[in-house]
Specification:
With 163 residues, the protein is of the alpha/beta class. 33% of the residues lie in helices and 15% in strands.
Length: 163
């Protein structure tokens, strides 16, 4: 049932764990930093437009990495851009999430074999939470990737792992 574990009929009382409440708040209000590098960025912009309406999932674009929870990286990542992506990732507050959108950001796409300057996947510089396949992926695929990320956030724990 999600956040509403038990509901009492005598009033407006809902009992839930604090962890579930915080996860629900985080997954329902993701602030996005877009990092569009090539043709996949057009599909990412289409997802944000009125027809697909990324906002209905609580995704709000932010101009600064210091205000963002999620980076959507779409397009061909060159070695020169990899250092910038890593810097933006380090500037984001925890918890932070990454969606890699398209074949180029996932694994280098069609350019990595003949291009010395193309990174063979953005996961070589930062950890990726969700991969959205396609060349370029449709807006529906990005929406599905966001839903997968929300499911991952829903089941996170606040406890720190001890080594």
């Amino acid at each position: 049932m999600g956040l509403l574990d038990r509901e009492f009929s005598d009033g407006n009382i809902v009992i839930a764990k604090t962890e579930d409440l915080l996860n629900w708040a985080r997954l329902s209000s993701l602030w996005q930093l877009s990092f569009g590098l090539a043709c996949c960025a057009i599909e990412m912009m289409a997802t944000s437009a009125s027809h697909y309406d990324f906002d209905r999932f609580g995704v709000i674009p932010r101009p600064s990495p210091r205000q963002a929870d999620i980076i959507i990286i779409s397009g061909t990542v060159t070695l020169k851009m990899a250092t910038r992506i890593k810097r933006l990732y380090e500037q984001m507050p925890d918890p932070k999430y990454i969606i890699s959108m398209g074949s180029c950001s996932n694994c280098g796409g069609p350019y990595w074999e003949h291009g010395y300057h193309v990174l063979k996947g953005v996961d070589r510089v930062i950890p990726v939470d969700v991969y959205v396949p396609g060349c370029p992926p449709r807006p529906e695929a990005l929406l599905e990737g966001l839903i997968k990320l929300q499911e991952k956030i829903r089941h996170e724990t606040l406890r720190k792992k001890t080594a």
